[in-house]
Design a protein that fits this description.
Elements: H1 8-43, H2 66-76, H3 78-100, E1 104-123, E2 129-146, H4 154-219, H5 225-260
Antiparallel strand pairs: 1-2
């Protein structure tokens, strides 16, 4: 038997594990390429333009806490501004309808100049002929007064009042919706941060130490290469889980900014 030889079954299992790791690497590489293309599209870059990322993946603390974010969202959210504008317009309609129900006076003044004549000639006092034609000036004026007697536009006022109440209820509902969205975004962010901390403190380090122990045991002849490959696969799965947890934290932070309605500064 040649040195370093392994049973055919172990060799086949090792080949399977190696090929599976390679397939996973190919899938991860394709995900990186797709994400790079999407990033270039968002940045307005050509697909074949070079793209180099700098910096690390360290998370910065949120500039806003839950209370400040909720206050800013209620104050600055565009959809709330639209709802408040509609409520203000409805309130203005009440004042308009009330004004239409009061007495009103309108003054009209007019002037007209008319050049009028006939296709005939007449005689003047001296006996000469002249065309029968003259210019007339008309002046006019008037006052119209509207006096509501039986109703003071109560129907339109009541309709405008109902529309105002409905607009105010929509504002209240929008405020509650914004507060719920901000609270849900912070809850998602806090859960994602706790998951990430578990990976950082109790999963990644332990998995890395386990892999080092298995490698050292293999170098000392107390384990097989298959054990090393299997532990390496578990370590890669842990790293993939950590990457997903980190992405969830970033997505949750973006969700907070979306719920607030303005970029957190």
């Amino acid at each position: 038997m040649r040195q370093g030889a392994a049973p055919s079954l172990d060799e086949g299992l090792q080949l399977v594990e190696v090929n599976r790791l390679d397939a996973s690497r190919q899938l991860a590489q394709s995900r990186v390429e797709i994400a790079g293309l999407q990033l270039k599209l968002l940045a307005g870059m050509a697909p074949d333009a070079p793209l180099a990322l700098k910096g690390g993946l360290a998370l910065a603390p949120l500039p806003l806490d839950r209370a400040d974010a909720t206050q800013r969202a209620v104050r600055d959210r565009p959809d709330l501004a639209v709802a408040r504008g509609e409520a203000a317009m409805a309130a203005a309609m009440i004042r308009k309808e009330q004004a239409d129900g009061r007495w009103d006076a309108t003054i009209n003044v007019g002037y007209q100049r008319q050049d009028f004549g006939f296709a005939l000639n007449g005689l003047t006092a001296s006996g000469t002929q002249r065309p029968i034609q003259d210019v007339f000036h008309y002046f006019g004026g008037g006052v119209s007064i509207v006096l509501p007697v039986r109703n003071r536009n109560e129907g339109n006022v009541a309709a405008a009042t109902a529309a105002t109440r409905a607009a105010e209820r929509r504002v209240e509902f929008a405020v509650l919706t914004v507060q719920q969205e901000v609270g849900a975004a912070f809850t998602q962010y806090e859960a994602a941060r706790r998951s990430l901390e578990i990976y950082e403190r109790g999963v990644r380090d332990v998995s890395r130490r386990n892999l080092d122990v298995i490698r050292q045991a293999y170098q000392l002849g107390r384990g097989s290469l298959l054990d090393v490959i299997a532990e390496q696969r578990r370590f890669i799965e842990v790293e993939n889980g950590y990457t997903d947890a980190l992405k969830q934290v970033y997505d949750a932070a973006v969700g907070i900014e979306r719920a607030v309605g303005t970029l957190a500064r």
